[in-house]
Design goal:
- The chain has a domain of 96 residues: Rossmann fold (3-Layer(aba) Sandwich).
- The protein has a five-stranded parallel sheet, sandwiched between helices.
- Strand 4, helix 7 and strand 5 form a beta-alpha-beta unit.
- Helix content is 58%, strand content 12%.
- The protein has seven helices and five strands.
- The radius of gyration is 14 Å and the shape is globular.
């Protein structure tokens, strides 16, 4: 883990590539600040899958491919894989917090962020703030 990493969540990644998304300006500015500070974005294979699926549903294959290109071509992104152990911990977390409306993918993100000691997340999803993380951009 590198100091000062920021987790990247699906709605932020999508807003970053879709200029029509209402969150695009704020997310873009937040990413520029992160990059300018020399910080890395961290994401998981689940976030990539979720973002590509969202882009495909909203914009079609060209937009979905653009998301993959952005991720593959960026030197400022570090991938974390969920794998068997994290999947098992996520199931337990998801069940334990069933009183919240967390998605399973959100729970995988929470597990990775805690393990990697990442406290900040680039997202528009209020569940991350509810789970105790610092959300960027600040709202």
């Amino acid at each position: 883990m590198a100091a000062g990493e920021v987790f990247a969540d699906t709605p932020a990644l999508y807003a970053l590539i879709d200029r029509r998304d209402g969150n695009h300006p704020a997310i873009r500015a937040a990413v520029e600040r992160v990059v300018k500070a020399g910080r890395f974005l961290v994401m998981t294979d689940y976030i990539v899958a979720e973002t590509v699926n969202l882009a495909n549903a909203r914009g079609g294959r060209l937009v979905a491919n653009r998301v993959l290109d952005l991720i593959e071509q960026s030197a400022g992104i570090r991938m974390e894989w969920i794998g068997v152990e994290r999947f098992t911990r996520t199931k337990a977390f998801f069940r334990k917090h069933s009183d919240h409306n967390y998605s399973f993918t959100d729970c995988t993100s929470f597990i990775v962020m805690k393990e990697e000691r990442i406290s900040e997340v680039l997202t528009t999803d209020a569940h991350f703030r509810e789970a105790g993380f610092k959300v960027l951009p600040a709202t």
